[in-house]
C-alpha cells in the first residue's frame, strides 16, 4: 500500500511537470508569434518608404532597429528552446524519484502560477500594442501627419519592445531560479 501511494504521488508529480513543459511550449509559441509580428512590422515599414527622402531615411533606420530587436528575440527563443530540451531530459530522469518530492510541490506550483500570470500580462500588453498600432495607422490622413505620427509610434513601440525584452530577461532569471530549485531537489533525492 505504501508503494502504491508513492507511485500515485509520483504520477501526480509527473503530470504537474509535464503541464509545466506544456505551458513553456505555449510561451515559446507566443514568443515566436511576437517575433513574426515584429518581422511583419519591419517589412511593412520598409515597403512603405516610397516617397519623401526624409521619410525613407527615417523608415530605413526604424527597420534596421527592428531587425536588431528581432535578432535579439530570436536569440532568446533559441535559448529557451535549449532550456526546454534540458527540462524535458530532467523530467525523464526524475520520473522514478518523485515519491520523495512532495514538500517541493507547493513552491514549484507557485512558480508556475507566477509564470502563467506573467504570460497573461504579456499577452494583454501585446494585444494593447496591436490595437494602438492599428488605431494610429487609421488616424493619419495625410503624408506629413502620417509620417510624424508613425515616427512617434515607432519610438513608443521601441520603448515598449525594450520593456518586453526586460520582462523576458526577468523570466530568464526566474527560469534559472527554477532550474536551481530542481537541481537542489535532485541533490536531495
From TrEMBL:
Residues spanning the signal sequence: none
Gene3D superfamilies (UniProt xref): 1.10.287.1490
Region of interest: Disordered: 130-151
Domain of life from the UniProt record: Eukaryota
Comp. bias regions, Low complexity: 130-142
Name of the molecule in the record: Tropomyosin
Natural source organism: Hanusia phi
Amino acid at each position: 500500500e505504501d508503494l502504491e501511494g508513492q507511485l500515485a504521488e509520483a504520477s501526480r508529480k509527473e503530470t504537474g511537470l509535464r503541464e509545466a513543459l506544456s505551458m513553456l511550449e505555449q510561451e515559446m509559441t507566443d514568443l515566436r508569434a511576437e517575433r513574426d509580428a515584429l518581422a511583419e512590422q519591419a517589412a511593412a515599414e520598409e515597403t512603405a518608404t516610397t516617397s519623401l527622402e526624409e521619410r525613407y531615411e527615417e523608415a530605413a533606420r526604424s527597420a534596421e532597429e527592428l531587425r536588431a530587436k528581432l535578432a535579439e528575440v530570436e536569440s532568446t527563443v533559441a535559448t529557451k528552446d535549449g532550456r526546454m530540451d534540458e527540462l524535458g531530459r530532467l523530467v525523464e530522469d526524475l520520473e522514478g524519484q518523485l515519491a520523495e518530492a512532495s514538500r517541493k510541490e507547493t513552491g514549484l506550483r507557485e512558480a508556475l502560477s507566477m509564470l502563467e500570470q506573467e504570460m497573461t500580462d504579456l499577452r494583454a500588453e501585446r494585444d494593447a500594442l496591436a490595437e494602438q498600432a492599428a488605431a494610429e495607422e487609421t488616424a493619419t490622413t495625410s503624408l506629413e501627419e502620417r509620417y510624424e505620427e508613425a515616427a512617434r509610434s515607432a519610438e513608443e513601440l521601441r520603448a515598449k519592445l525594450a520593456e518586453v525584452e526586460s520582462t523576458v530577461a526577468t523570466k530568464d532569471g526566474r527560469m534559472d531560479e527554477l532550474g536551481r530549485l530542481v537541481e537542489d531537489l535532485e541533490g536531495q533525492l
